[in-house]
Write a structure and sequence with these properties.
Mean pLDDT is 87; it is low at 204-212. By secondary structure, the chain is an all-alpha fold. 73% of the residues lie in helices and 0% in strands.
C-alpha cells in the first residue's frame, strides 16, 4: 500500500510540474523555458523518467521496475545535488526553487530517493548502479553534440550552453560532465547501500512477523 501511495504521489507531482513548466510564460528564468523547450533540461527529463518509473511500478513489481526506480532516483538525485551545491550558488537557490522547479529540483528527487531506499527486495548489483549512469552520459553527449553542431550561441538565455558548463572552456566543461557522471554512479551506489540497510531489513522484519 505504501509503495502504491508513493508511486501515485510521484506521478501526480511530476504531472503537476510538467503542467507548470509547459504553461510557463517566462523564459530563461530559473532554468525554465516555454513549452517543449523545457525538454532540453536534464531536470525535466530525469523527473519525467521518475514519473514513468513510478507508473510502471504501479502495474508490475519485477527486476526491471526496480532497476528503473534506481536509475530515476539516481538521475533526480543528481538534479538535487547539482542544484543544491553547484548551480544554486551560481544562479541563486531562490530562483531555482520557484514554481515547477520546487517540485523538480527538490520534492520529487527527495521522494524518489526515499522510495528506492525503502523499497523491498530491490537487490540491485553494481551493474545496475553502472547502468544508472547511462542516462547522464547520454544527456551529456547530446548536450555537447548540440553545441558542436549549432555552436554555443549568444548570451543567456539564448545559448545552447544553458548550464554554463563550457563557461570556463572545453577542458573544464568535459571535466564537469565526467564529475556529474561519477556523482550519478556514486548516488546509485549510496542508494543501493542504504536500501540494503533499510529496505532489506524492513523486509526481513516483515517476514519475521509473518512467521512468528
Amino acid at each position: 500500500m505504501k509503495a502504491r501511495i508513493i508511486n501515485i504521489t510521484i506521478i501526480i507531482l511530476v504531472t503537476a510540474g510538467l503542467i507548470l513548466m509547459f504553461t510557463n510564460k517566462d523564459t530563461g528564468t530559473g532554468l525554465m523555458s516555454r513549452g517543449f523547450g523545457n525538454l532540453k533540461y536534464y531536470t525535466v527529463l530525469s523527473n519525467l523518467f521518475a514519473g514513468i518509473a513510478a507508473l510502471v511500478s504501479l502495474f508490475t513489481d519485477n527486476k526491471l521496475s526496480k532497476v528503473m526506480k534506481l536509475m530515476s532516483a539516481s538521475a533526480t538525485g543528481v538534479t538535487f545535488a547539482v542544484i543544491a551545491f553547484f548551480l544554486g550558488p551560481l544562479y541563486g537557490h531562490v530562483n531555482l526553487y520557484r514554481n515547477a522547479n520546487f517540485l523538480f529540483h527538490l520534492v520529487v528527487p527527495l521522494i524518489a530517493m526515499y522510495d528506492y531506499v525503502t523499497l523491498k527486495d530491490a537487490a540491485a548489483g553494481l551493474r545496475s548502479a553502472a547502468l544508472s549512469a547511462v542516462p547522464t552520459v547520454l544527456y551529456g553527449a547530446g548536450y555537447v553534440l548540440n553545441i558542436l553542431i549549432n555552436g554555443i550561441g549568444g548570451e543567456y538565455p539564448d545559448t545552447n550552453d544553458f548550464y554554463l558548463f563550457l563557461h570556463w572552456g572545453w577542458g573544464v566543461g568535459i571535466a564537469i560532465f565526467a564529475g556529474i557522471t561519477a556523482v550519478t554512479f556514486g548516488i546509485a551506489c549510496l542508494l543501493r547501500w542504504a536500501n540494503k540497510r533499510i529496505g532489506y531489513s524492513r523486509n526481513q522484519d516483515d517476514q519475521n512477523l509473518l512467521t512468528y
